[in-house]
Design a protein that fits this description.
With about 500 residues, the protein is an alpha+beta fold. Helices cover about 40% and strands about 20% of the residues. An 8-stranded mixed beta sheet has the order 1-5-6-13-12-11-7-10, with helices on both faces. Strands 15-14-16-17-18 form a 5-stranded mixed beta sheet, with helices on both faces. Strand 14, helix 13 (about 375-385) and strand 15 form a beta-alpha-beta unit. Helix 4 (about 140-155) crosses helix 11 (about 260-275), helix 10 (about 245-255) packs antiparallel against helix 11 (about 260-275) and helix 16 (about 435-445) runs antiparallel to helix 17. The protein is elongated, with a radius of gyration of 28 Å. The chain starts with 20 loop residues before the first helix and ends in a 7-residue tail after the last helix.
Length: about 500
């Protein structure tokens, strides 16, 4: 490479977002945002960079090894946010005169984690969060679960489940066995959360003396006695056909334990609210091994998983974090919420064939010129189409008289469905040519004869007076969107 140039490259774990995927991402964000707003959530933003003590707190999160750290020009220790939840807690504490509780918010933006990249896992990725602050009522948690379900349904997913647990139940179990050391509790939580990934036998080993992983590396165990391990395993493997049946089993498991009574009541309340929202037992499932990784979760926790693509992992996760705002103010502010990993969600949609790249386009109409038609004519027509709400681009090549094939080639590259072509003769008559690029392509499928091929393309082409261009384009776009040969997301 020339020494005066720099090699274009990406850092490991980062990605560019190019069309059509960038357009797909925008449309999915818009669809999910509409769901949030249907539930009464309002959009807010916070900075990408926060002071280190804001994000990690006085004791530090267990995610601190995955943080991107650096210093500001003033020498302050700062880091890139690893989620949107902690900044939201800071916001609630900082602006009590602006944010009246209870408060529903959603946000969209990148977060950064310096962990190992993998399938659908990047060091910079987009998260879409929805949170409710200022209420202890489990109806808030039920709405979060309902949003998860609506999101998955709206994107066309089949065979998904929202897994639900209550961290307080595991806390009660550990207290039963006098396990009160915070670090040991965190270690146990992390091991339990691995159950779907590593299996029951490996969880037993990690709760005990440890194990050797597939790569040959040792994994340190918690060091619990065998009878405690068996008690934990018997709890996290409780199952049932309905949420009520699982609650019944949990009641028997904790019979007479005052530490678990409130948590069991919360499970009952949440089940009642989920029923009211029409969420079935097959979609929202109580899963007692779910703990979620972050330390700030304090009650119900949720994860959305794909039954047909379990290797993708969780695509939506969240839970209740009633103590997080107390990091900043002494007054407790109960909160619950969820986060969508947009890149992982799109990766899952691709694996499940829910996305067809040729169904997306950045704009609807390209305006092309033939011969000596002035650019001014194209710009005037573009203004008319845009004012009618039609996304329009004018071909702006470097040649003063660009060949039509170059202009239509650009439309083909970006999957543009309609071309409005201005020719000299048509211009003199006050007319334009409108071409349905998709129909022309479809009509030619399977034709080998040259004359038939050329004739098939003419079916998709109309010449109309300029005053009818808007109506004609709208009719053509509508036929493209609703036709059987071109489904639209």
């Amino acid at each position: 490479m020339n020494k005066n140039t720099v090699e274009p490259r990406l850092l490991k774990g980062f990605q560019d977002s190019l069309p059509p995927k960038s357009q797909i991402k925008q449309q999915i964000k818009s669809k999910i945002s509409q769901i949030f707003e249907n539930y009464g959530f309002v959009y807010i933003e916070t900075p990408a960079i926060e002071p280190t003590e804001i994000l990690l707190g006085p004791g530090g999160e267990n995610i601190e090894k995955e943080i991107f750290y650096f210093n500001t020009p003033e020498g302050e220790n700062v880091c890139l946010r690893f989620d949107h939840t902690v900044p939201f807690a800071r916001l609630i504490a900082q602006y009590p005169e602006v944010i009246k509780l209870p408060f529903k918010r959603y946000t969209i933006g990148p977060v950064w984690r310096a962990d190992k990249p993998g399938l659908g896992r990047y060091r910079e990725f987009i998260q879409m969060d929805a949170d409710i602050a200022g209420t202890n009522d489990l109806s808030a948690d039920a709405e979060i679960v309902s949003i998860m379900v609506d999101t998955m349904n709206s994107l066309g997913f089949k065979g998904f489940q929202v897994l639900i647990n209550n961290r307080k139940l595991i806390d009660a179990l550990l207290i039963q066995h006098s396990i009160t050391d915070i670090m040991k509790q965190k270690h146990i939580m992390r091991v339990i959360d691995k159950l779907p990934k590593v299996g029951i036998e490996n969880v037993k080993k990690e709760l005990g003396e440890g194990r050797i992983d597939e790569s040959g590396d040792p994994i340190k165990g918690v060091g619990l006695p065998r009878e405690v391990i068996e008690r934990i395993i018997s709890f996290i493997t409780i199952t049932g056909d309905t949420r009520k049946e699982i609650i019944s089993h949990v009641e028997k498991f904790f019979k007479g334990d005052p530490e678990a009574e409130n948590s069991i009541k919360e499970m009952k309340d949440l089940d009642e609210y989920l029923e009211a929202l029409g969420i079935s037992d097959s979609v929202a499932v109580y899963s007692l091994s779910l703990t979620r990784g972050l330390d700030y979760y304090s009650g119900p926790v949720f994860e959305t998983v794909l039954l047909q693509a379990k290797q993708v992992g969780s695509v939506i996760g969240g839970g209740r974090y009633d103590s997080l705002v107390s990091r900043f103010i002494e007054k407790p502010v109960p909160c619950t919420g969820m986060s969508i990993g947009l890149d992982r969600l799109i990766s899952a949609m691709e694996q499940m064939n829910l996305i067809q790249p040729n169904q997306y386009y950045p704009y609807e109409v390209i305006i092309a010129r033939i011969g000596n038609v002035p650019m001014k004519q194209a710009l005037e027509l573009a203004k008319v189409l845009r004012e009618a709400g039609i996304k329009t681009s004018v071909y702006m090549g470097n040649k003063p008289r660009p060949p039509l094939k170059d202009q239509l080639s650009l439309a083909d590259h970006y999957n543009i469905p309609v071309a409005v072509i201005i020719g000299e003769e048509e211009l003199n008559r006050g007319e334009v040519c409108i071409k349905d690029l998709y129909y022309g392509e479809k009509a030619r499928e399977g034709i080998t004869n040259r004359e038939e091929y050329r004739g098939a393309g003419r079916v998709s082409q109309l010449t109309v007076p300029k005053e009818k261009v808007v109506d004609t384009v709208k009719e053509m776009l509508n036929s493209i969107v609703t036709s059987s040969y071109r489904p639209y997301y």
